[in-house]
């Protein structure tokens, strides 16, 4: 605690980095890890496009053609998706997607911070008056 504040903060960040696991696995019993990482990211106001660039090497080479097409459509629209779809080989699709998405700030779902439940659309929990007060049998 006698260290300068910047050293204490670096040590705290190091400890947090080793205790937060936001790696999404197909089969895991640790379901809340992703949500905890999202909560931490929101609290720290992390802007993921500052830390991750979606490129051919970082993302598109690692997913199938359909995912590439859907990603480009989400980032740049359906016309851009058609450019990727027209590619003869996956390697061409990766190159096209890389060029189209560059500089857009778009990032894939696995590295996006999920919105808090309170920010998402509220669920209607209204109860009909008949359900609130059941009428006595006559």
Secondary structure: elements and pairs:
Layout: H1 5-19, H2 32-43, H3 65-76, H4 78-85, H5 90-101, H6 129-132
Helix pairs in contact: 3-4, 3-5, 4-5
**Would you count the extended β strands for me?**
0
Number of alpha- plus pi-helical segments: 6
Shape designation: elongated
Mean pLDDT: 83
Radius of gyration: 22 Å
Structural class: mainly alpha
Assess the beta-strand content as a share of residues: under 5%
Specify the helix fraction band.
Answer: 40-55%
CA distance, first residue to last residue? 73 Å
The biggest beta sheet is recorded as: none
As residue ranges, the low-confidence spans are none
What is the H/E order? HHHHHH
Report on the structure:
α3 runs antiparallel to α4 and α4 runs antiparallel to α5. Helices cover 46% and strands 0% of the residues. With 138 residues, it is mainly α. The mean pLDDT is 83. The chain has six helices and no strands.
What's this model, at a glance?
With 138 residues, the chain is mainly alpha-helical. Helices cover 46% and strands 0% of the residues.
Core attributes:
mainly alpha
């Amino acid at each position: 605690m006698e260290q300068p504040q910047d050293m204490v903060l670096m040590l705290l960040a190091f400890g947090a980095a080793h205790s937060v696991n936001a790696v999404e696995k197909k089969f895991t019993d640790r379901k809340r890890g992703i949500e905890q990482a999202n909560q931490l990211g929101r609290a720290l106001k992390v802007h993921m496009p500052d830390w991750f660039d979606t490129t051919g090497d970082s993302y598109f080479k690692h997913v199938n053609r359909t995912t590439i097409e859907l990603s480009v459509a989400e980032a740049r629209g359906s016309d851009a998706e058609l450019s990727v779809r027209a590619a003869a080989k996956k390697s061409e699709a990766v190159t096209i997607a890389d060029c189209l998405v560059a500089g857009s700030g778009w990032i894939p779902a696995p590295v996006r911070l999920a919105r808090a439940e309170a920010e998402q659309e509220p669920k209607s929990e209204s109860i009909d008056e008949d359900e609130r007060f059941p009428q006595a049998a006559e």
